[in-house]
Specification:
Elements: H1 14-92, H2 113-120, H3 129-163, H4 181-216, H5 222-233, H6 239-243
């Protein structure tokens, strides 16, 4: 805050008095205006920096999301082939064929740490209402995707825990030669549960990619974002069904 000092001469007349008051008033107005200008410039720089960080995060999410989608697709194809093998063994009393090597590509799950940090720090007020709505939709999809990722990890853990009880072949894979019919049924159920969990997760990964594509194209209305999500989802399930599961915060 700027200090405003009055003239040091003694005020002798009403004219001098009003000049004195006017000088103080003008000085205060100038000080307030300067302070507000500095604050406005500071907020403008803060907003620009936040937008730049969020745009970079969007690009990272799109890259990570596409790699995740590709890896999920590979894993789903592997699971489908393995499920077919176990079904044949369980339903036709045939020996269980050896599983094909699983070489799922590496991926890093998408995340939104910059948006969540900005929200926690109360910096979302630097953005427009449309931008806040758009990033809130991204957060909503990300939160649901995180939950489904936990479900998928549990399904994988259950499957691996079951496989660990069987002896290992020379190549390190489980030896199912002495697996009972009940064992095969259990294994089939675990593989199917894994497949379902992974399909659900992949669906929301694609929703996230669709939402971020809209954000990257500066589309801030929910209608435009939903349209982008539907496009990426490839109409596998009604978007209305997904958005009825949870309400955005």
């Amino acid at each position: 805050m700027l200090d405003v000092h009055a003239p040091h001469e003694v005020t002798h007349t009403w004219k001098d008095f009003f000049i004195h008051i006017a000088t103080i008033a003008v000085g205060l107005l100038i000080a307030v205006a300067l302070e507000q200008s500095v604050e406005a410039i500071h907020r403008h720089h803060e907003a620009a920096a936040l937008r730049e960080d969020l745009h970079a995060e969007t690009e990272q999410i799109l890259n990570d999301g596409q790699r995740t989608d590709n890896s999920d697709e590979y894993e789903l194809q592997w699971l489908a082939a393995r499920i077919a093998q176990v079904q044949e063994a369980a339903w036709q009393n045939k020996p269980l064929a050896t599983a094909e090597p699983n070489e799922m590509p590496y991926f890093a799950s998408p995340d939104i740490p910059i948006w969540r940090s900005a929200k926690a720090a109360g910096k979302t007020s630097l953005l427009t209402k449309g931008e806040i709505n758009a990033y809130a939709e991204v957060e909503y999809v990300q939160t649901h995707m995180d939950s489904l990722s936990d479900d998928e990890r549990k399904a994988v853990a259950n499957q691996r825990s079951f496989i660990e009880k069987f002896p290992k072949l020379s190549n390190g894979t489980a030896d199912f030669t002495k697996a009972s019919h009940e064992d095969l049924q259990t294994y089939l159920g675990l593989l199917t549960a894994n497949e379902v969990a992974l399909k659900n997760y992949q669906t929301w990964v694609r929703l996230l990619i669709g939402a971020e594509l809209a954000v990257r194209d500066e589309k801030t209305s929910l209608e435009e974002i939903y349209a982008s999500e539907r496009s990426k989802l490839r109409s596998r399930k009604s978007l209305t069904e997904f958005h009825s599961d949870f309400s955005p915060q």
